[in-house]
Structures are given as structure tokens and as C-alpha cells.
Amino acid sequence: MADAEGLLVFADESPPTGPGTDDAPLPWRVLIVDDDADVHEATRFALKGIPILGRPVAFLHAHSGAEALAVLRREQDVAVVLLDVVMETPDAGLRIVSAIREELQLTNLRIVLRTGQPGQAPEMDAISRYDINDYKTKNELTRNKLFTTVTAALRSYDQLQRLDASRRGLQKVIEASNDVMTRPGLRSFAEGIILQMASLIGVAPEGLVCASTIDRSHGDDAPPHFEIIAAAGRFSGLIQKPLEDVADTRIVGALRQSLLERRNLLAAHSVTLFFETPDRHAYAVFVDAPHPIRDLDQNLLHMFCTNMSLCAQNIQLMSALREQAYFDRLAELPNRAAMLRELDRALDDGSSKAQALALIDIDQFSAINDLLGHPYGDELLRAIALRLNADFPGCFVARVAGDVFGLLGQREVLTPAAIDRLFAKPFNIDQVDHPVTVSTGIVHLRDVAGSGSDCIQNAYIALKRAKAGGIGHHAYYSESIANETRDRNRMRIALHRALVQGGQLYPVFQPQLDLRTGCVVGFEALTRWRADDGGHVSPEQFIPVAEQTALIVPIGEWILRHALGVLEKLHQRGHTSLRMSVNVSAVQLRQPDFLALLDRSLDATTVAPGHLELEITESVAALGIDQVRTLLEAIRARGIAIAIDDFGTGYSSLSYLHRLPADRLKIDRSFIHTLDSGQGGRIAEMVIPLGHHLGMKVLAEGVETESQQHRLRALGCDEMQGYVLARPMLADDLPAWLDAFRPAPD
Ligand code: C2E
Ligand code: MG
Ligand code: MG
Questions:
Q1: Which domain holds residue 198?
Q2: CA-to-CA dists, residue 637 to 166, 592, 634, 669, 697, angstroms
Q3: Are residues 644 and 681 in the same domain?
Q4: For residue 628, what is the domain's CATH number?
Q5: 537 in a domain, yes or no?
Q6: Rounded to two decimals, what is the model's pTM?
Q7: 632 and 719 fall within a common domain
Q8: What is the C-alpha to C-alpha distance for residues 310 and 173, in angstroms, rounded to an integer?
């Protein structure tokens, strides 16, 4: 029979039954308390064999107040006590009444007082205070009257019990909602439903939740698929199995019937509840009941089902939200938050010792995006995601930043060699093969002291180290790298402050000499930093830090302006042929307004562009050789010269050299130092004609001795710079130095 809203239907509407036998109704328990044995006998005789409200009556007996209390302490579910007032003492009965209500707290137990004489009646206030149901003189208790009195008392007890049960049940429904809502994920929610339902109907938490899904890819009329999504107790092994795999036909039948007929089933030994969310996700929960379920209030079950349906819907919404929060739609991979969660889990449960996290950064991805367009970049990311998943099957793969993928897996699997192998083959995008190189930072989880975010941070430290080595490199996280990173961070902060406050950074100038004429031809401007503690920080240390944080941009602008200002003054003093060399890093060249900056700086002085030279290193090739060429040509078109600095170190790719339009080649000082030793001259010997062949002048850096100077001149080197001539000097010292300088051609 369906209830008002057709939600709740019970297969078996038989009246409540008691434990033991399936069909015999549970008897009402009535306690007779009297010191007169005849009263016991007469009462029993009067009510014998007559069912009351559909249930038989069973009697308990006590012959004194003390015995009555002992029985009530021992026995459960006593419904009515027929109580003699005067027994061992004139108020023995009333004492029991007080014990029942106050000490034993049996508030539902109905009390019928019986006395020999009307004069022994209790006071009116006692009757209401102790909730005494009825008061009769013994001779009033004829068979009919007794039946009526006991029936009224039992009815009242039954109602109180039901009220209690539904109050408790209601509490449970509310608790159930609270409990299941805090469980993340549908599976856990479903487990919660089994627990709560078992608690509501008073059985052990053993049961199954079956979900009904329709695979819409087979059309809207596709048959539903039933799967066990949660199981508790002896059923736990059945989780994630199709319903057909459950051996017990009784369970399969109940779940299937409930889901197909979309209704609850209350059978003799089981309860199956049906839930449905508004978006038509359907679940059926089966709970075994070793004894038939008694007194199950239908309203309560209805409320439970409605509440759980709402909860299920909320859980689905939350799961969907959570899904979005942890998923990267572009690469169709878990995102950084998901990786963090996974790392936290691994670090928590101790499974992490043998694991590693690799961060894989695609080299020059922003250049790919700029050159080939964002849709192309997106395609490439998806292709890489697919291959990562396919080639590292046991690993957790996520996209943790724009062009950075994270892989979490066994240490011996996540090796640089394995990652290199994966990227050795190009990626085919739009029928074109696209070779990709990556930089990789790897951290072993056993080296991580904190949480998942510390782990990612460490991997980033390693990645940064890898990138510092150029493209296609990898690095492992270590304590010393972390310390260096910390030092660099401190330096970055201090450098930033120095730049903002002013005064700590200042330029120095080192002269450059024409080896043939012996005349000074120009100066190189170099930055110096006097730190807070008064000590000097070497540019070899702070320039790379400035480059990594783009602080080099304002620093570069500042030194360019100063250097031109100093040169202008030297020109005004008559040294009109001098040029000024300023170091420019790749980060500066990448600024879109770099040319505008050059123009602005030159416009601010009377210095002609032909007297300015920019020193770049071969590392600018990393920006993309074609872009660099275009930019350098634009610079040279203004009359500004280009020098290739530190030649022979870093990239040292001769293939780049002839493609970089430049005026001067500066041989790194490391090749000059070895000039004095037999073998050392070889490189200088090779580089000087090479530079000439490419139409450049060649300048030797770091010349410290006269013999080096002579040797260089003999080798045909055009110019030099070094301590043998002068150390870098303050601007104020330059005029005096120039005045004192005498060319000394030999
Ligand atoms: P660099 O451009 O190759 O500068 C030449 C370096 O060699 C300078 O070091 C100079 O002091 C040093 N040097 C000159 N003569 C000798 C010598 O005879 N022996 C030895 N051992 N060293 C000599 P410094 O000033 O420490 O600069 C180091 C590097 O820092 C520079 O190398 C340059 O790459 C970078 N740098 C310095 N200032 C700036 C700047 O304002 N902007 C940029 N982007 N880089 C700068
Ligand atoms: Mg230089
Ligand atoms: Mg140099």
C-alpha cells in the first residue's frame, strides 16, 4: 500500500511481530503487585486468554514492594503495573510509584493503583505528580472493568512508546543527515546511509547500497546497470561488483525490485529503502534484519528517505564541485590541488618513502604559444598529457602550472632517462612533428620534511636549478640546493631594497685599449653593490639573481643611463672618440619596449648612438635565434654596436655565432689566463681569426700581464681590457686616469 505521496510502500503490512517465532505477536507484559495471593489468581483468571489490542497478555508477579522493585529493575518492556497500595507498610505501594518514576525513570510504564478500602486512596496531588493512570478499589475490579482499565492503560503505554520511538527516530534522521553530509564522496556517503539506516531500525550495520545507472551512450532506453557502490559488514567484499555477482538471490531480488519499482520494501527479514535524486540518480539500500522489524514508523522512514535523497543530491553537487576544483579541463588531467592532495596522502600514510615527484617544464613554451598561437600550445599540452599517462601508467600525472606537469610515482620509474625517452620522439600536432625539450626537477619524498606543498616547492627548487643549466636539463632536490635557494631569496630581497632605496648600487668603469695604437678606445660599465653590512657582493652572484627575478630590467636601465651620462662628460672634456660598453642580459632584450628604452636613454644625452656598445652573451640565443637577429639588426641600424661577451663559455655554439650580427667578439678571460702556459694559447689563436673572418673585431678580456698583452697583439687581437691596464674605476676617477695615461706602443 502506498502512502500519500507514493514514496513509501511496504511489501509486508503484517502487524508487528515478536522475536523467536515469526508470526506470534509479542505479548504485553503486565506486572501484578499484591501481598494477597488471591488477587494474583483472580486477575490472571479474569484476563486469561483474551488478546488486548491484538496481542496476548503475559503476567509478572510480585508479592511485596521490595519484590516489585526487583522485578522492575530486572525486566524490560513492562507495560502496566497493577499495584496494591497497602502491603508491608501502609504506603508500600506509593513508595514503589515514586521509585518507578524518579529512581527507575520508567516514564512510559502505566500504573493502576488498587486498594482494599476507599479510605486508603492516595492524595490527589500524588496521582498527578506520579502520573498514576487509574485508581480502583479491589472490589471494583470485575472482569469487565479490569479488561477496560488494562486496555486503556496498554493503549496509553503503546502510544507513549511509539512517541518515544519516533522522537528517537527523528533524532537519528537528523543525526544521519549531519553524518552523511560530512562524508566526502558518494561511496562514503553510501556507507554512511547503511550505518544510519541500521541504527534507525535497530539492527547491526550490515548492508549494501546499489546504484542504478543508465549508459546514455546506448540511447535513452538503454537498460539500467546495477552496481554495488557501498557495502558494510559481511557484505563488504561485494563493493564495486555488478548486482548479478551477488550470490544471495533474496538480496538481488529485493534490490532489483526496489530499483525497478522505485519503492521501499519492508519484508520479514530485511528492509530495502529506495532513494532518488531529482536528477534521477537512483539508489537502493538493503539492510538485513535478523528479526522482523517492529514498530517501524512509516512517517519516519519517509522522512529518512526524503532526507537521504536530498543529501545524495547535495553530495553529488559537492562531488561535481570538488571534481572541478581538482581537475584541469584543458589538459584533461588532475590539477595542482589534486597533486597536493595526493602528495599529502602519500606523505601521511608512509607509502611515500620509495616515491618521487618530478616536475616537468616544457622549454620555451611561451615562445611556442606566441609563435604558433594558443590553440596550438593547448594541443601540444594535451598531446604531452596523453603521452605522460600512457608511458607512466603507475604514476599520478597532473598539470600543476601552465606548462609544468607533475608526476608522482616510484623513484626507480621516474628517472631523467625515462623522461628523456618520452620526449625523444616529437609530438605530432596538426600533422607536423613538433620536437619538445623539457627541464625536470625531481624530489625524493623521503627528503621532504613537511607537507605536499613543501614537496612541490622542493621540486620547484630543483626545477629552477635544472633550468639554470639551460634547456633540456634535470636536477635533483638536495639540502644544499635548498640552502642556495634560500640565500638567493635573501639576496633578491636585499637587492630589491637596494634598488628602491638607492645609494648601494653604483657603476664602475674599466678602460679598453687598442692593442695596435696603444690608445684607450672606451670603457665598459660594470655594476657594483655595497650591501647593508658595507661588504661588496660580486656581480657574478647578484646579476644572476637579478636576472631570475627580472630586477635586472630596472638595474639595466639605471646603469645604461649612468654610463651614458659619464660618457657625455668625458666627451665634453675632449675625449670625443671614446665609446661606452654596457652589459645587457637576455631578460632585458626580451622586454617589448627595449628599443624604446635605448632611444629614450640616448635622447637624454648628447652621445651619438655610434659611441654606445651593448654586450650580450650567447645565451640570448635561447630567446630564439630569429627574434634575436631581428632585434640586434634593429639596434645596429641605430648605429649602436654589439659585442658578444664571454665568448667561449656558456652556449659556445659556433653555429649561433655566425648568425648573430655583431661588431665585436670578447674572448672570455678564462682563455686569456692560460695564454702564458704552453697549451693555453690555442683557443685564443683560433678565436681571433674566427672573429675576423666573421667581420668582427676581437677584444681580449681579463688581461693581467704584459706577456699576455704582447702575445695577444702578436696573435692579431685588436683590443684588450684587464688589470694590466686598469681595474674598474669610479666615474670621478676617470678624467685623472685618462690624463695620466700615456699610450705605450711597443
Ligand atoms: P663581464 O661583462 O665579462 O665583465 C668583465 C669582468 O671581468 C668584470 O667582473 C671585471 O671586473 C672583470 N675583470 C676585468 N679585468 C680583469 C682581470 O684582469 N682579471 C680578472 N680576474 N677579472 C677582470 P665583474 O665586474 O665582477 O662583473 C662580472 C660580470 O657581471 C660581468 O662580466 C657581467 O657579465 C656581469 N655584470 C656586471 N655588471 C653588469 C651590469 O650592469 N649588467 C649586466 N647585465 N651584467 C653585469
Ligand atoms: Mg661585459
Ligand atoms: Mg666578459
A1: 183-323
A2: 92, 18, 5, 30, 18
A3: yes
A4: 3.20.20.450
A5: no
A6: 0.53
A7: yes
A8: 12
Q: What is the CATH number of the domain that holds 275?
A: 3.30.450.40
Which range is least confidently modeled, 337-341, 515-519, 740-744? Answer: 740-744
| Cell representation of residue 174 | 537528523
Is 131 near ligand 1, meaning CB less than 6 Å away? no
| Ligand 1 neighbour 56 (Cβ under 6 A) | no
State the ligand closest to the CA atom of 670: 1
Cα(152)–Cα(133) distance, rounded to whole angstroms?
Answer: 9
Among all chains, which residue has been given the C-alpha cell 676617477? 733
- CATH number for 463: 3.30.70.270
Q: What is the DSSP string of 439-463?
A: EEEEEEGGG--S-HHHHHHHHHHHH
Atom 8 of ligand 1, residue of closest alpha carbon: 526
**Could you give the CA distance from residue 521 to residue 611 in angstroms, rounded to a whole number?**
10
Q: Name the H helices within 527-576.
A: 539-548, 552-572
Do 122 and 72 belong together in one domain? yes
In angstroms, the CA 589 to CA 595 distance is: 9
Kindly report, residue by residue over 374-411, the tens digit of the pLDDT: 999 999 999 999 999 999 999 999 999 999 999 999 99
From 105, 130, 163, the end of a domain falls on 163
Q: How far, in Å, is the centroid of ligand 2 from the Cα of 583?
A: 5
Measured between its terminal Cα atoms, the distance across the chain in Å is: 120
Alpha-carbon distance of 28 to 79, in angstroms, equals: 6
Atom number of ligand 1 nearest to Cα 539: 30
Ligand 1 neighbourhood includes 527 CB (under 6 angstroms): yes
Over 90: is that where the pLDDT of 634 sits? Answer: yes
> Does residue 419 belong to any structural domain of this protein?
yes
One domain for residues 604 and 684: yes
Residue 178 included in any domain: no
Q: Give 526 Cα–ligand 1 centroid separation in angstroms.
A: 6
Indicate which atom in ligand 1 lies nearest the CA of residue 728. 11
Q: Tens digits of per-residue pLDDT, 437-457? A: 999 999 999 988 889 999 999
In a domain? residue 715: yes
Same domain, 337 and 319: no
Whether residue 723 has its Cβ less than 6 Å from ligand 1: yes
Provide the number of structural domains found in the chain: 4
Residues 6 or more apart from 201 whose CB is under 8 A from it? Answer: 271, 287, 289, 293, 296
Spatial CA neighbour of 507 closest among 546, 559, 543, 556: 559
Q: Ligand 1, closest atom to CA 588?
A: 44
Cα of 657 vs centre of ligand 1, distance in Å, is 21
Nearest-angstrom CA–CA distance, 214 and 224: 5
- Do both 204 and 151 map to the same domain? no
Pair 555, 569: CB distance under 8 Å: no
Pocket test for ligand 1, best of 701, 705, 708 (most atoms within 8 A of CB): 701
Ligand 1 touching residue 439 (CB < 6 A)? no
Packing angle, helices 186-201 and 143-181, rounded to 10: 170
Task: Give yes or no: residues 335 and 316 share one domain.
Answer: no
Q: Which three-class secondary structure string do you get for 238-306?
A: HCCCEHHHCCCHHHHHHHHHHHHHCCCEEECCEEEEEEECCCCCEEEEEEECCCCCCCCCHHHHHHHHH
Q: Supply the residue whose CA is at minimum distance from atom 22 of ligand 1.
A: 702
Grid coordinates standing for 114? 488498587
